[in-house]
Amino acid sequence: MVAYKSKMVERIRLPSRAQRERNLERAGYNAFNLDSEEVFVDLLTDSGTGAMSDSQWAALIRGDEAYAGSRSFEELESAVRDVMGFSHVVPTHQGRGAENVLYGTLLSAGDVVINNTHFDTTRAHIANQDADPVDCPVDGAHDPEMDAPFKGNFSLEGARAVVDDVGAENVPMIISTITNNSTAGQPVSVENTRRVREFADEIDATFVIDACRFAENAYFVTEREDEFADATVAEVAREQLGYADALVMSGKKDGLVNAGGFVATDDETLFERCKQRTILYEGFPTYGGMAGRDVAAMAVGLREAVEEAYVADRVDQIQALAEMLEEVGVPVYTPPGGHAVYLDAGAMFPHLSPNEFPGQVLVCELYREGGVRGVELGSFAFPETDRPELVRLAVPRRTYHKEHFEHVVETAATVLEKRETVSGLEITSEPEVPELRHFTAELEPISS
Ligand code: F0G
Fold it and tell me: Is the CB of 310 under 6 A from ligand 1?
C-alpha cells in the first residue's frame, strides 16, 4: 500500500524520438554517457537516487558541521546502535570508502576472501589489497527461472571446498552481501547467516555483512522464513546483522540518503584500527568525508528504512513492476529482487549471441523506445563469465509512481514486439581495465 504523498517535485521530459536516436549515437550506445536530462525514467541505479523524507530534510538543516565531536555523529551512533545493534561507527563518504577502510585494515597480500557474490567495488577493493575474491553463490542463483525463496544465500558447501583447497589460515574474512546485488538482488535467510557465522568461527575468520540493502532483506525474511513470520522488519534486521563481526554500509541504499556510508563493529581493536585508516582516506572519524548534515540525514534514514510501511511499499513496487512486465510477456528474473527488476535479454533476443551484447542492445532499445535507462549486467559488464544476459532496472527509493512504471512496461512491450528486427552491437573503444569497461566503452550497431 502506498505510504507517501509528494511535497516537492522535479520536472522530467521525454525527448522526441529523433532526439533520443541522436542521443544514443552521441553516447556511443552506452547509457552511462547519457545526460540525466535526456532520460525520462532513470532506473540506472537505486544508489543515492532516492527521495529524502521531510524529517530528513529537517535534520539536514540542523546538521552540525563541527570537524570533531559533531552532534550529528552522535545521532548516527545512536541510530546504528538502535537499528543495527552495533556500538561503534566509522563514517565514510560512501560504501566503497567503507570497503577501503575495513578491507584495507583486515587484509594482506595473498589472502582469500569468500562472499556469496562480490559486488564490483567489493571485488575491486579486495583485489586492491592483492587478495583474491572468490564467489560462493548457491546453486540456481544465476538461473533466471528457478523459483526459490533465498537465491541470494551463501553456499557453505562452496566455501568449504575453497577452504579445503587454499587452507583456513589463508581465509581471514568471509562476507555475506544482503541482499545479493550481483545475483539479481536476491535475499539471504537468517538461517543461512547463522550457518555462515558458525563457519567463520570454525575457520577463525572475521565475518562481515555488506548491509547495503539490509532492510529490504529483512522484509523478505518476514515474508519467506517461517521462523520470522511474526517478527517485525526491525527485529529481523537486528537479529541478522547481529551475527556479523563488522558491517560495511552504503548509506545511499537503505540509509535513504544521497551520499554516505560507514563501517560498524563492536570490536574495540578493529574500531581503533579502522579509525586510523579513515583519518588517512576519509576524514576525522566523526564525519568521515561526509558533511555533518548528510550524517544527520543518514541517522534519520536508517530509522525510516526499517519502518514496515516504507519497506513494504518499496518491495511491493518492485514486485508489481515485475508482474506487469511478465503480463506483457517480457522475460524477467524470478522471483524479483528487493531493489530492482532484472530483465532476461538472452531470452528476449535469442537471435543475438553473447558477443553481440544482447543486454546492451536491450538497454539501448529501452532508451530509444521510451527514454528509459537501465544497466547491462551480462557479457558487456562481465566479459568472460557465464552469467545470464541480464539488464537491471533499479528502482530509486520513494521516487517513482505507478504511471512511471506503466510507461516502462509499455516501452519494454514495444521493444518485445520489434525484437526480431534489432541487431547486435560491437565495441569501438574501451578503457584499459576490462572490469570497468561497461562504464565508459563505446559501441555501434553491427551492420549486417
Ligand atoms: N556493496 C554493494 C552490495 C553495492 O550494491 C554497492 C553499490 C556498494 C557496496 C558500494 O557502495 O556505491 O556507496 O560506494 N552499488 C551501486 C549499484 C553502485 O548501482 O548497485 P557505494
Answer: no
Please state the rounded mean pLDDT for residues 372-400: 93
List, for residues 12-33, the tens digit of each pLDDT value.
Answer: 999 999 999 999 999 999 999 9
Domain edges within the chain: 17-39+308-445, 54-305
Q: Is the CB of residue 183 below 6 angstroms from any atom belonging to ligand 1?
A: no
Cα(315)–Cα(310) distance, rounded to whole angstroms? Answer: 9
Q: Which fold has domain 17-39+308-445?
A: Aspartate Aminotransferase, domain 1 (3.90.1150)
d(CA 250, ligand 1 centre) in Å? 6
SS3 state of residue 96: helix
The residue whose grid cell reads 534489432 is: 422
Considering only the C-alpha atoms of the chain, give the largest distance between any 2 of them, rounded to a whole number of Å: 64
> What global pTM score does this model have?
0.97
Question: What is the grid cell recorded at 240?
Answer: 541478522
275: alpha, beta or left, given left = phi > 0 and alpha = psi -120 to 50?
alpha
Shortest-distance Cα residue to atom 18 of ligand 1: 47
Question: Could you read off the pLDDT of 403-414 as tens digits, one per residue?
Answer: 999 999 999 999
Q: What is the pLDDT of residue 322?
A: 98
Q: Which of 101, 120, 250, 281 to mutate to test the pocket of ligand 1 (most atoms within 8 A of CB)?
A: 250
Cell matching residue 410: 509499455
256 — alpha (psi -120 to 50), left (phi > 0) or beta?
left
Q: What are the angstrom distances between the C-alpha of 441 and each of 19, 61, 159?
A: 22, 40, 34
d(CA 310, CA 56): 14
Q: Judge: domain 54-305, CATH 3.40.640.10.
A: yes
CB distance 209 to ligand 1 below 6 Å: no
The C-alpha atoms of residue 375 and residue 184 are separated, in whole angstroms, by 12
Q: How far apart are CA 162 and CA 169, in angstroms?
A: 12
Q: Do β-strands 425-429 and 442-445 pair in parallel, antiparallel, or remain unpaired? A: antiparallel
Which H helix or E strand runs over 167? none
What's residue 448's pLDDT? 63
